[in-house]
TrEMBL record:
Gene Ontology MF annotations: ATP binding; ATP hydrolysis activity
Source taxonomy: Bacteria, Pseudomonadati, Pseudomonadota, Alphaproteobacteria, Sphingomonadales
Domain ABC transporter: 6-235
Protein's name in the database: ABC transporter ATP-binding protein
A Pfam family of this chain: ABC_tran
Keyword tags: ATP-binding, Nucleotide-binding, Transport
Native organism: Sphingomonas lycopersici
Highest taxon of source: Bacteria
SMART domains the UniProt entry points to: AAA
Amino acid sequence: MTDAAIAIRDLSKTYQGGKRALDNVTFDVPAGTIFGLLGPNGAGKSTLINILAGLVRKTSGTAAIWGFDIDAHPRNAKASIGIVNQEILFDPFFTPLETLEIQAGLYGVPKAQRHSMELLRAVHLEDKAKAYARTLSGGMKRRLMVAKAMVHSPPVLVLDEPTAGVDIELRQQLWNYVRELNERGVTVVLTTHYLEEAEELCDRIAIINHGRLIANEPTRELVGKAQEKVVAVTVDRDLVALPVAPAFDKIVLKGERTLEITYQKDKVNAGEVLAAVQGAGLGIVDVSTKEADLEDVFLNLTRAVNG
């Protein structure tokens, strides 16, 4: 076992018809982390996950899970990973308890070593253990999918859009469980369209666009790359015209006295922006800033590639 829970090297996939879903992608998922895999729709994330799951054949390159190459040691690789797909897939006529027991049996987990009720308790479904799965709400079904992926106690868990359609309270419960798993040593790979979720949870984030890796950095460093900042300045009088200055990238009037000024922090600082406002003969009554977030970085990076 190396320090990489998942090691991907020059991974490519071209579908029949010539569509290139992955283009020489290389990165490691460090063991013990919560790792974000982000990208626009159609970027190649699901193809990559399906290759790891053994559902899609790669065209070239290599992938290893917990040190096991997916081609040379497919059984060990599959035993090392649990995957929660976007689609909710299980038999509606089985109860949650039966679903987990059957899944554990498919992975060859001896009855004495199964922990189905413990898993249901962890995802807050203990009281639904013997209800038909088809009677569960959408949020409950998603949590059952997470429990199903953990029946064989894999060291790596992949969550593909796990909170789509889940309300805020259930989302929090799900993330609390994910954090618990991670604290116990499980490496978590997360894809999500909720960028604030990725920013809060992930230690490191990779971004894929048009099948190519365009970023792979610790979350804080990635967020720090956002150069665009916004400052809201409330002035001491109603404005007839907007002030103009080289320090301003963009300026918008919000209400009668509040200016929302966008500037590039690699070129000017907030002090210069405020000085330009005062230089236009305006008194400053109040100032607030909007910090850059992952969404800003994501949009800038994907926009640059698309452009």
